């Protein structure tokens, strides 16, 4: 085999050596990041979905006509949904902040590693120039010229040729590049996680707003129920102490439950609250006050010992007569003076117009019904007794008769109160 002239061999060797070093450096410095792994667990969403479903069922309970247990359970489910959504918002925001902090930490570390890498790259480039200007000896040149020489052999020959510090610099370059890739990947993953948690927090915030609106709407209806129940309990306790005490205890428990829900003020007669229905909450028109500050009475008529608004007197008379023919001696109580309730509100709630007319019953101490929300105050409702006792169960024979016949005379029942029947006139 012919010998290559020494100068030609030297020049060729310089090119090979420099090429090998620069090729290795280029390979070590090349960029290439994998896709960020998608963050997330759906455990929180599953729990939120269960709470939301339970709250949806709870919101369908009739707060005016449902049983005490149904209404209390519904309030608890709605409260749990709101608290769960608040926790979801807080948790998502906390995780978003943590992921953002991790991303920034990784970016700072990557910046420092990049500077370190630039210094190593310059160092390796310097070795490449030195190898070009000061080629290896004759024996190593033969190895580069051998037809069967492989790239790994060339690199190994280069490393053997260079001093220990040269080899260390290349090893440092490789490990530093790996560290940079890990830091960059960590930063990208943390950014993706932060973005996912921010989106999760925004969704949770939307769900929280919906949950609060749902809870507030139900609480408004419960407060209307309280206005009737508290008024009934106070009045009936004068006529039947045990019965009134039972009603008062139930109303107090309900007031305690709903007091945790922020107040949405309701004006007497506001049809959006259900106050104009023929059930417990009347208030079809705002009360008319006299120059002295009291509310004028409606025209009243007493029928069979029950005082009612004159416009339903004939209907009540017909109902009592029909009941008597069927063997039921019905009595009861109808009109209640709204001014007595106004005075009680001043005593327990405050003297402002808001305190008297709008402040929810559960905001007073003790809880006190708002005036203007009971059809008794308009003389359009009757609490019936049969044989001297209030009809306090739906199994009472008198209730069964009323359920079958009262409608003929324009009277409807409030299901949660078997004794309470109203007629809008």
TrEMBL record:
Keywords, comma-separated and alphabetical: Coiled coil
An example Gene Ontology biological process: proteolysis
Family matches, as SUPFAM superfamilies: Hedgehog/DD-peptidase
Coiled coil: 75-123, 170-211
Region Disordered: start-end pairs: 257-301
Domain D-alanyl-D-alanine carboxypeptidase-like core: residue ranges: 307-422
Biased composition (Low complexity): 257-274, 283-296
CDD domains: Peptidase_M15
Keyword Coiled coil attributed: yes
InterPro entries: DD-CPase-like, VanY-like_core_dom, Zn_M74/Hedgehog-like
GO molecular function: peptidase activity
PANTHER family registered for this protein in UniProt: D-ALANYL-D-ALANINE CARBOXYPEPTIDASE (PTHR34385), PEPTIDOGLYCAN L-ALANYL-D-GLUTAMATE ENDOPEPTIDASE CWLK (PTHR34385:SF1)
Protein name: Unannotated protein
Organism: freshwater metagenome
């Amino acid at each position: 085999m012919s010998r290559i002239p020494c100068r030609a061999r030297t020049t060729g060797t310089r090119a090979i050596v420099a090429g090998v070093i620069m090729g290795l450096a280029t390979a070590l410095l090349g960029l290439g990041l994998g896709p960020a792994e998608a963050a997330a667990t759906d455990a929180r969403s599953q729990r939120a979905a269960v709470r939301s479903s339970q709250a949806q069922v709870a919101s369908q309970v009739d707060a005016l006509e449902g049983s005490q247990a149904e209404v209390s359970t519904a309030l608890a489910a709605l409260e749990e949904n709101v608290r769960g959504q608040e926790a979801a918002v807080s948790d998502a925001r906390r995780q978003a902040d943590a992921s953002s902090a991790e991303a920034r930490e990784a970016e700072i570390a990557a910046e420092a590693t990049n500077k370190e890498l630039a210094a190593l790259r310059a160092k390796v480039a310097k070795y490449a120039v030195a190898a070009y200007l000061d080629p290896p000896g004759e024996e190593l040149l033969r190895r580069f010229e051998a037809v069967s020489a492989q790239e790994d052999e060339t690199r190994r020959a280069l490393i053997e040729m260079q001093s220990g510090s040269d080899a260390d610099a290349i090893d440092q370059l490789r490990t530093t590049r790996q560290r940079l890739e890990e830091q960059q990947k960590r930063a990208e993953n943390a950014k993706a996680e932060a973005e996912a948690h921010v989106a999760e927090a925004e969704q949770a915030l939307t769900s929280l707003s919906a949950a609060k609106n749902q809870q507030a709407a139900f609480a408004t209806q419960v407060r209307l129920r309280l206005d009737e129940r508290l008024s009934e309990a106070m009045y009936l306790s004068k006529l039947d102490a045990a019965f009134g005490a039972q009603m008062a205890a139930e109303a107090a428990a309900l007031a305690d439950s709903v007091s945790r829900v922020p107040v949405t003020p309701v004006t007497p007669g506001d049809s959006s609250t259900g106050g104009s229905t023929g059930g417990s909450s009347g208030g079809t028109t705002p009360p008319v006050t006299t120059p002295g500050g009291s509310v004028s009475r409606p025209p009243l008529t007493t029928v069979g010992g029950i005082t009612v608004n004159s416009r339903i007197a004939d209907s009540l008379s017909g109902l009592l007569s029909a009941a008597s023919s069927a063997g039921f001696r019905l009595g009861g109580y109808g009109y209640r003076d709204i001014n007595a309730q106004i005075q009680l509100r001043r005593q327990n709630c405050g003297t402002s117009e808001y305190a008297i007319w709008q402040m929810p019953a559960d905001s007073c101490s003790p809880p006190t019904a708002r005036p203007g929300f009971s059809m008794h105050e308009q003389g359009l409702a009757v609490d019936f007794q049969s044989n001297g006792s209030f009809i306090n169960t739906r199994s009472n024979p008198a209730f069964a008769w009323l359920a079958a016949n009262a409608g003929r005379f324009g009277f409807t029942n409030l299901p949660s109160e078997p004794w309470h029947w109203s007629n809008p006139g």
